[in-house]
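Translate structure to sequence.
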């Protein structure tokens, strides 16, 4: 195992990694921006270095400074967390050339899955279902129009360098399609420096189900079952759960097997998430492979009992996975509510400011992953998530009751939060019955 690692992140995920490291006897080096200087969670690292000004582009995203901190801190590895540099293949490659282990997939595998068109082609090769659409990239308008006629409208234009809903455009007819192609190409070129696009049939009213995977460098590759992340708004997940409700055992098995086939074909190692959409008839389609530990990973930890951060460190250190597929069981039901400093009544506008009062819930089956405390100042510079409230119970019904109880205990004053919205979701019959799709939030509570 590593003696010492650097955590190239902030907030709750940095804290999550410090804690796992402490249990493993691994020393930690933190980095922080001027906005995070003096933050309490940094006390749980062994050492901390400032890497620049509050804006992420001037600190957490500055590769040279992160690498300098790693050199000065004398670490063997870097954990990138999620966001920031986590899916930057260039950064992973620089880590390798500096002989620092990047705790994630190889830069080659990361670059492969970061190319959404390449990932889609690979999925097809190994019989992982993909949405009907273009064979490779869309080269010109005429080709796209004729394909759209074959598939039927609506169709979706996706940027090959996009992902997570960025650079996506729906088209309902020929004219709109031609415009969408121009716009998508221009946007993708501006945002990613890559104008490549591909086309898919637009799957209406989908559910979003993702499979957690992890693989080692010795041929070990397993899934840790699925998470249902359908409850989202504008590609920001709000509630995640496992097992996915309304997923039959056979489809679950097929999805999880498909996910493992794909990561094996990609030579993918370390933790990752294979995203699918499931249409109203129950057919599932591969969408993308996320090359990072995700915000919602604790949902999977609760139902499997496996510490994913420790597993990431083990695998990155060259060890074998300490479990096989047969050791992994999905037990009980887990739900996560993302607690954001946002005002749901004002279009989810972030509400930076000081937390003047905080009461954290506890009790049986409750976990609160958070770096905040009374007096903490929520910065306008970063993501507005201030914590993740999770529950684990024998059944989904009990998990919902437990989450409602835990939400009622959680008090945050000083900043508006998404807590009242979560209470409304947890009280909604459609959520209880899980008769929802990715448009539920916007349809149920317009604007
Ligand atoms: C789709 C789709 C419908 N049809 N692809 C959005 C995020 C990105 N990972 C893929 N996404 C989608 N791709 C086809 N062919 C609908 C979505 C989508 C979505 C997917 C997962 C979770 C939430 C979503 C919200 C809107 C659209």
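Result:
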């Amino acid at each position: 195992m590593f003696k010492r690692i650097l955590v190239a992140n902030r907030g709750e995920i940095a804290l999550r990694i410090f804690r796992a490291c402490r249990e493993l006897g691994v020393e930690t080096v933190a980095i922080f921006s001027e906005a995070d200087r003096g933050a309490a969670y940094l006390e749980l690292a062994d050492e901390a270095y400032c890497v620049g000004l509050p804006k992420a582009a001037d600190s957490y995203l500055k590769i040279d400074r992160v690498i300098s901190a790693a050199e000065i801190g004398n670490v063997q590895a870097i954990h990138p967390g999620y966001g920031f540099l986590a899916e930057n293949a260039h950064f992973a490659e620089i880590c390798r050339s500096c002989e620092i282990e990047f705790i994630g997939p190889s830069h080659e595998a990361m670059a492969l899955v970061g190319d959404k068109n390449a990932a889609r082609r690979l999925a097809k090769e190994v019989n992982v279902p993909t949405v009907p659409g273009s064979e490779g990239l869309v080269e010109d308008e005429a080709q796209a129009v004729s394909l759209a006629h074959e598939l039927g409208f609506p169709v979706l234009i996706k940027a090959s360098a996009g992902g997570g809903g960025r650079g996506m455009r729906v088209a309902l007819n020929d004219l709109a399609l031609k415009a969408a192609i121009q716009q998508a190409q221009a946007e993708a070129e501006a945002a990613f420096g890559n104008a490549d696009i591909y086309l898919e049939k637009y799957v209406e009213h989908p559910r979003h189900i993702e499979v957690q995977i992890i693989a080692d460098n010795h041929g070990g590759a397993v899934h840790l079952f699925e998470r249902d992340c359908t409850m989202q708004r504008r590609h920001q997940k709000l509630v995640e759960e496992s097992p996915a409700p309304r997923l039959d055992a056979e489809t679950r098995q097929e999805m999880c097997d498909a996910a493992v086939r794909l990561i094996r074909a990609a030579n993918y190692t370390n933790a990752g998430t294979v995203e699918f959409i499931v249409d109203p008839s129950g057919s599932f389609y591969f969408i993308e492979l996320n090359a990072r530990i995700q915000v919602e990973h604790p949902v999977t930890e609760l139902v499997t009992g496996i510490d994913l951060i420790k597993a990431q460190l083990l695998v990155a250190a060259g060890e074998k996975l300490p479990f096989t597929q047969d050791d992994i069981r999905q037990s009980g039901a887990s739900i996560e509510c993302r607690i954001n400093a946002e005002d749901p009544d004002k279009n989810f506008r972030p509400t930076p400011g000081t937390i003047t009062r905080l009461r954290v819930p506890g009790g049986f089956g409750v976990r609160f992953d958070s770096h905040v405390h009374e007096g903490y100042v929520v910065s306008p510079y970063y993501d507005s998530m201030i914590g993740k409230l999770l529950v684990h119970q024998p059944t989904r019904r009990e998990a919902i009751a437990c989450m409602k109880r835990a939400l009622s205990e959680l008090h945050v004053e000083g900043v508006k939060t998404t807590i009242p919205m979560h209470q409304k979701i947890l009280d909604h019959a459609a959520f209880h019955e899980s008769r929802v799709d990715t448009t539920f939030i916007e349809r149920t509570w317009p604007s």
